[in-house]
Amino acid sequence: MTKCMIQVNISEQSLYLTTPDDTFHYSISTAKKGIGQAFGSECTPIGRHYVRAKMGRAADINTVFVARRSTGEIYSSELAERYPERDWILSRIMWLCGTEKGKNRLGSVDSMRRFIYIHGTPDSEPMGIPLSHGCIRMRNSDIIQLFDLTPPGTCVDIKL
């Protein structure tokens, strides 16, 4: 298995994937409410994480997920108009688990229990500015590429 590393730079709104053969750069969107670890904060947690689970391997681009399961829907502007309150999670999910006890693991700061993901979002949503509810949002084509290049267990370092 190849060794990969993901680095998320919140101040740049960038994600970098380093593989043994290459480095990839993606524009992202982190939390509108900034950085933070607490349950219910809707902030993006910082620190060392890893990809605990991946969902959506064979899903079509723009597949809609709710509670980590495909709804059978494909995102469209008509669907968005019908459900304006949804926080759209599309195409792929990479569920993060913190590794630093008391910072992003266990208790009221546990990233996995907070359901912190790297996931796709509607392509109409802007990248490069913080607008998420705590997760790391990416373009659908970008999350599919990232998903395909990274195995479960990949280290994810989220920093300011």
Give the SSE map.
Elements: E1 5-9, E2 14-18, E3 23-27, E4 47-55, E5 63-66, E6 69-74, H1 77-82, E7 89-98, E8 117-120, E9 136-138, H2 140-149, E10 155-159
Describe this entry's structure for a reader:
With 160 residues, the chain is mainly beta. The chain has a single domain (5-159), classed as L,D-transpeptidase catalytic domain-like. It is built from 2 helices and 10 strands. It has helices spanning 77-82, 140-149, and strands at residues 5-9, 14-18, 23-27, 47-55, 63-66, 69-74, 89-98, 117-120, 136-138, 155-159. Strands 1, 2, 3, 4, 5, 6, 7, 8, 9 and 10 form a 10-stranded mixed beta sheet that branches. The longest helix has 10 residues, at 140-149. It is globular, with a radius of gyration of 15 Å.
